[in-house]
Write a structure and sequence with these properties.
The chain is 9% helix and 46% strand. It is mainly beta. The strands form twelve sheets. The chain has a 28-stranded mixed β-sheet that branches. It has a 21-stranded parallel β-sheet that branches. Strands 8-11-14-17-20-23-26-29-32-35-40-43-45-47 form a 14-stranded parallel β-sheet. The longest helix has 39 residues.
Length: 1258
């Protein structure tokens, strides 16, 4: 689904209207252009738009909504209380409109789920999206067994769900992909309030307040959601493991460090206000769309190699709003306010600001002394500077670089202050008081003195910018190098010839010019509806060489900075259209009237570029380009004349694209260069050509020089790829399906490299590990990254001599052609158009079961058209024995495959199952995967387990029914009181039975919990006889030994008669009907590599029983209050087990009848006590039973249509001994209470039963 969404987005972005700019990182300022009806995600224009959206309203009066409730309240001052105690205090200033939407959702979530205000409807987030996971979690219900351990309540297995609606005093744990939901409260001493294991899912709608670390922890590949409150007492409120994902829509307010600790991906739409450092501690990828207001040092800490995004509000009280570590990258599109007057952004890695920064330092550049690398800061937004502060700061010996393309508002400090490193201003500095620059700051932008009579220092760097007064006129004495064009309409040749004046300025006036510019700076301020600031009218292309064009659109000003009616060539030049945040929609940096834009060296355009045309890159070493255009992108190197004319010193191409959307990419490398290879990297967001394109969309056919092309994601290439006439290399980083033709040209050593991620010990065939490309004119194909498959229905390989090299294991699928017709393989025909074809695999070639393979013959032999590489091993799936002879000049190669006998695999006793399975492999994908990727031991277990599972239905089904029946019958027979003549006796009991069946050498045992509630009514006909009826209902939960469960309901209806003979013998006749409905689920996993697969995965085991029982006992008095009661009895049970069928219908057991005849003998010892107003009896006793079991059917089942006998099916125990103890009390008013405990010993397992009840005689 994710990949389909990505493809849809790429198709949508092909609807282009204008060109818009992107940005880059690294140590050089690189050029980027984009074009789309909506800005391309990640581009500079997109970043500017997002900053506008997420800062709108931040300087207004937005406040989080107030709520009152029994548990959670939010005051006007932003105090959020839980049970009357202040949990957090949310800043009520600088909240933008979008952040307010998200935080008000947080308030509603707490009010609804913790205060119980159920009428509230939870709205969408600030971007109009549903709250992720919210409704899905609410709909979940309990499924599966929860096991209480010393450390917590655990549920295990995918599909099993544990919902807590009350209070837990231990951790709530998800294991092996299970799902946990907390709607109540988790409070205990220890770590891991809600522990979400690997591949698990967890939801919190309530309160988690354990005393230790990890309020909610998310394991590898797990997902965690918080819509409530996490307030554990130590570190890591929400801890997100590697490849895990965590969402916070509620409040995280743990007492220690790291509100969100992120190794995977973390999102905050709510409030993080932990007491310690690091509101978000990001070692993976982290996003903030809410509020981070922690008390410690860092609001958003981005560790080494981490990536952090702030769209919301960071308003922490410590030293750093956003701290960016070595090799980390931080982006701010929202508001960062450091209330401790320290750094809004502290940067050792790379930091970008498109929003608003306020602090003692806006961007503070530091150094990693271990790696000796320093930070880089880019400002495209707004930095507010107060007294004794610095907008961008580099200290002594820190190194690093800062660039300002936005606005720095300096109110008494220093806009850019450096003691080392490099700094450049291409933007705007508004200076109220204090120094503008300190140190060597190169100025190509606009400085505005916003107060009168100031003389703010411009530092010691190059000054080619302009200094303006508050009315945007040039300040006298600060602009001797500047020509004021405000009163003229053009740049004349005479003006250009003034060597001392290389900078030009205009305000609200269009300046025409027709000359190329070298080393010039054009500046402008636009406050009205000025159409164009600078208009190029020349008949030839415009060349800007080492030039800067900076315009400031303010006070509602809008229009175009530079209009070009021809081609535009940028050589190490910058064009920057600076705007106030709220004005960004109305400004264009460059408008091209049908011309071509050529970027050479380190050039960039900051702002939108509108128009139609092509884009050329000449000898470009630019990185992370963002390009989108209705036209063609051409990459080439410079001719000899261009090298001289443009001053190019490094005439080679080494370029990468973060975003590239174009109709065609042309690689035209024809300038002879025997030393250099032209390198091109196409990133993850690339769309070239339309979906219906059939001609080459990447065309290097004209190139005579070497090309090294890397494509990260080939799904965006809609057409063929053709390279040139030298030795070229194409590397495809993500091996996804591609329908085009790859022609590597006419070199002598053309190479195709493909890779996919190494899946480790688990493997299943999928799109990414299947090679299916059409590759022409290739000499070498290298497939790296674990296991590989080949789809011969799509693959085409042409060439004279081709080596196919697999770093891991090549899986060749074998499929049946029919009885007596042999087999075909997935390598057939792959090398038919190659004269000399060699296949090598570092971990061997493994012949595996294909989609249409069934073992119809004992062995197979077939020819190959390929040679085997040196040391390439031939092997097979667990059921195959393989050997090979390779191709020679005189003979073709052969592969020989023999299907192993059951005895060879240690499965002689299970040959019927084995033979059935291997003849029906085409029936089940998961079964084929298990056979292909299991080792011998796992395969043995799988086959044996099939018999075990069948016996679980066959034996366990009726054994459990017998246990249920015995529990209810025993309850009736153990009730000692009798209704007298004309009396009614009503009583109810709760029953609990913990029962075990050990099974046998081949049958599954079990450990079960059977519960029931029983109601009985008895009427005394006379003093010697009474009659009664019984109804019971309960639950059955059975854990099957070795994995699996039986869960369901039980029902009992019965009647009985009690009679005392003249000789004092007490008789009890009992008849009952039992119904047991059970659903079975075995521990089945479709994954492989160390995990067993079960052929029989599920089914129902329903049964009913009719039971007749007769017992006789004779009391013998030992004393007035002590007696012994010998007993004899017999019981007959007829169990009818319904037919069993698995959901895939591959397994079936027919309906069957089982009869059990049981004889029993025993004795009770009874002691009576006269208690005030009643009678108390204590009873203990023993009982011995002998059983005989008769089955109407042989122990057989059907698998894939074949009838198979169970191997050593086990019956239930043939004898048992039990002991019991209990008491009965009846008050003179007729109210009674009873309790009893019974323990049962058998040779097939021990069980125990407990019951407690109330009675009333009337």
């Amino acid at each position: 689904m994710k990949r389909e969404l990505e493809k849809s987005l790429k198709r949508y972005l092909k609807r282009k209207v204008r060109i818009t700019l992107g940005f880059v990182t690294a140590f050089a300022i690189m050029g980027n252009v984009g074009l789309a009806s909506e800005a391309i995600e990640g581009s500079l224009d997109w970043s500017m738009e997002k900053a506008k959206e997420w800062t709108e309203g931040y300087d207004g009066s937005n406040k989080i909504k107030e709520i009152t409730g029994d548990r959670v309240s939010i005051s006007e001052a932003g105090e959020i209380k839980l049970d009357g105690i202040v949990l957090v205090t949310v800043p009520q200033t600088n909240i933008s409109n979008k952040v307010l939407t998200n935080i008000n959702n947080t308030a509603d979530l707490l009010d609804k789920h913790i205060n119980g205000n159920t009428e509230l409807v939870i709205g969408k987030d600030a971007d109009g999206n549903e709250i992720v996971g919210y409704n899905e979690g609410l709909a979940l219900q309990n499924n599966g067994e929860v096991v209480e351990q010393d450390t917590g309540f655990e549920i295990s297995g995918e599909g099993n769900i544990f919902v807590n609606d009350g209070e837990l005093n231990k951790s709530q744990k998800s294991l092996e992909g299970a799902t946990i939901v907390n709607k109540g409260e988790i409070t205990f001493t220890g770590d891991g309030g809600q522990s979400i294991g690997n591949n698990g899912v967890g939801y919190n709608y309530g309160i988690i307040s354990n005393s230790g670390d990890y309020g909610q922890s998310v394991g590898s590949n797990g997902v965690g959601y918080n819509y409530g409150i996490i307030a554990n007492k130590k570190n890591q409120g929400q801890s997100i493991g590697s490849n895990g994902v965590g969402y916070n829509y509620g409040i995280i307010a743990n007492d220690g460090v790291s509100g969100q600790y992120i190794l995977g991906t973390g999102y905050n739409y709510g409030i993080i206000a932990n007491d310690g450092s690091n509101g978000q501690n990001i070692l993976g990828i982290g996003y903030n769309y809410g509020i981070i207001a922690n008390s410690g040092n860092t609001g958003q800490n981005i560790g080494s190699n981490g990536i952090g995004y702030n769209f919301g509000l960071i308003h922490n009280k410590g030293n750093y709003g956003q701290n960016i570590g070595s090799n980390g990258v931080g982006y701010n599109y929202g508001v960062i306010i450091n209330t401790n007057n320290n750094s809004a952004q502290s940067i050792i890695g790379t930091g970008y600001n498109y929003g608003i920064l306020s602090g003692l330092y806006g961007q503070f550049i530091s150094k990693d002394t271990t790696t000796n690398t320093s930070g880089i800061g880019y400002n495209y937004g707004i930095i507010n500077v107060n007294t004794n502060a610095s907008g961008q700061y580099i200290g002594k010996d820190k190194g690093g670089k800062v660039y300002n393309y936005g606005i720095i508002n300096n109110n008494g400090g220093t806009a850019i202050n450096i003691s080392s490193g490099e700094a450049s201003n291409y933007g705007v500095v508004k200076n109220t008081t204090g120094a503008v620059f300190n140190g060597k700051v190169d100025n190509y932008g606009i400085v505005i003195y916003t107060t009168d009579n100031q003389n703010g220092s411009l530092g010691a760097g190059i000054n080619k910018g302009v200094v303006l007064a508050k009315d945007y006129t040039l300040v006298s004495g600060k602009n001797n190098h500047v020509t004021d064009l405000s009163s003229t309409g053009s740049i004349t040749t005479a003006i250009l010839n003034e060597e001392e004046k290389t900078t030009y300025y205009t305000k609200d006036n269009t300046i025409n010019f027709s000359q190329d510019l070298t080393g010039n700076v054009l500046t402008a301020v636009i406050t009205g509806d000025n159409d164009v600031a600078y208009n190029y009218t020349g008949s030839d292309e415009l060349i800007l060489n080492d030039s800067v064009v900076t315009g400031y659109f303010t006070d509602g000003g809008k229009g175009t900075l530079l209009n070009v009616s021809n081609d535009l060539v940028l050589v190490n030049s910058t064009i920057n259209a600076v705007t106030d945040i709220e004005n960004r929609d109305n400004v264009t940096a460059v408008k091209l009237d049908g011309g071509t834009l050529t970027q050479i060296g380190e050039s960039q355009i900051v702002g939108k570029v509108e128009g139609e045309g092509g884009i050329n890159y000449l000898a470009s070493q630019s990185k992370e380009q963002s390009i989108s255009i209705n036209g063609e992108v051409t990459l080439r190197n410079a001719t000899a004349d261009e090298v001289i004319n443009y001053g190019i010193t490094n005439n080679k191409t080494d370029i990468s694209f973060k975003i590239l959307e174009a109709d065609k990419l042309t690689l035209d490398f024809t300038v002879e260069d025997s030393e250099n290879v032209n390198k091109i990297v196409l990133g993850d967001n690339v769309v070239i050509g339309e979906a219906t394109t059939t001609t080459p969309v990447i065309d290097g056919s004209s190139s005579s020089e070497k090309i090294n092309l890397t494509i990260n994601d080939i799904t965006g290439i809609h057409g063929d790829i053709t390279l040139g006439n030298n030795d070229d290399t194409l590397t495809i980083a993500k091996n996804y399906a591609y329908d085009g033709v790859i022609d590597l040209g006419n070199g002598t050593n053309d190479i195709l490299n493909l890779s996919h991620s190494d899946e480790g010990t688990t493997h299943v065939k999928n799109e990414e590990n299947t090679f299916n490309y059409k590759v022409h004119n290739v000499e070498e194909i290298n497939l790296t990254g674990g296991h590989w498959h080949i789809d011969n229905t799509k693959t085409e390989i042409t060439g004279d001599k081709v080596n196919l090299n697999i770093s891991g294991e090549l899986h060749v699928e074998v499929n049946s052609l029919g009885a007596g017709k042999g087999v075909e393989t997935s390598m057939d025909g792959v090398g038919k158009d190659v004269n000399d074809f060699t296949v090598s695999a570092g971990e061997g070639i493994k012949f595996v079961v294909g989609d249409n393979f069934n073992a119809l013959e004992p062995s197979y032999s077939f020819e190959t058209e390929y040679k085997l590489g040196a040391d390439t091993e031939i092997k097979g799936a667990v059921i195959f024995d393989t050997s090979a002879s390779t191709v020679t000049e005189d003979s073709v190669g052969h592969i020989n495959i023999r299907v192993k006998e059951a005895d060879e695999l240690g499965l002689g006793d299970y040959a019927a199952i084995y033979d059935t399975v291997i003849k029906n492999l085409s029936e089940n994908d998961a079964l084929r995967n298990a056979i292909n990727y299991q080792d011998g031991g796992q395969f043995q277990d799988m086959i044996k387990n099939t018999d075990f599972q069948a016996s679980a239905f066959y034996t366990t089904g009726y054994a459990v029914t017998k246990d249920v029946t015995d529990m209810y019958m025993d309850t009736v027979e153990s009730f000692g009181r009798k209704a007298g003549a004309g009396e009614w006796l009503a009583f109810g009991k709760y029953l609990s039975s913990d029962t075990e069946f050990d099974g046998g050498s081949s049958s599954r045992g079990y450990d079960g919990d059977i519960t029931g509630t029983v109601g009985m009514v008895e009427y005394g006909v006379n003093d010697t006889t009474s009659y009664g009826v019984v109804f019971g209902k309960g639950d059955t939960e059975i854990d099957i030994t070795g994995g699996g469960k039986l869960d369901g309901d039980n029902t009992y209806i019965g009647g009985y008669v009690k009679h005392t003979t003249e000789g004092g013998i007490e008789l009890l006749g009992n008849i009952g009907f039992t119904k047991s409905d059970l659903d079975a689920k075995f521990s089945t996993h479709d994954t492989v590599g160390g995990v067993n697969y079960n052929i029989i995965s599920d089914g129902s085991s329903d049964a009913d029983a009719i039971t007749l029982s007769l017992k006789a006992k004779k009391p013998y008095s030992i004393s007035e209050t002590l007696r012994v009661e010998p007993m004899l009895g017999a019981r007959y049970t007829l169990i009818n087990q319904d037919a069993v069928e698995s959901s895939d219908r591959n397994f079936r057991i027919d309906e069957r009848d089982v009869t059990v005849l049981e004889g029993m003998a025993g004795a009770d010892l009874v002691k009576d006590f006269s208690v005030a107003n009643g009678k108390l009896s204590l009873k203990t006793g023993v009982e011995v039973s002998l059983l005989s079991v008769s089955d109407s059917d042989d122990a057989r089942y059907t698998l894939y249509g074949n009838e198979i006998a169970l191997v050593n099916e086990e019956e239930i125990a043939d004898s048992k001994v039990s002991a019991h103890v209990g008491f009965g009390y009846e008050h003179e008013n007729g109210v009674g209470v009873d309790a009893r405990y019974k323990f049962i010993w058998t040779d097939k397992g021990d069980s125990n039963r407990a019951e407690v009840g109330l009675s009333y005689r009337f």
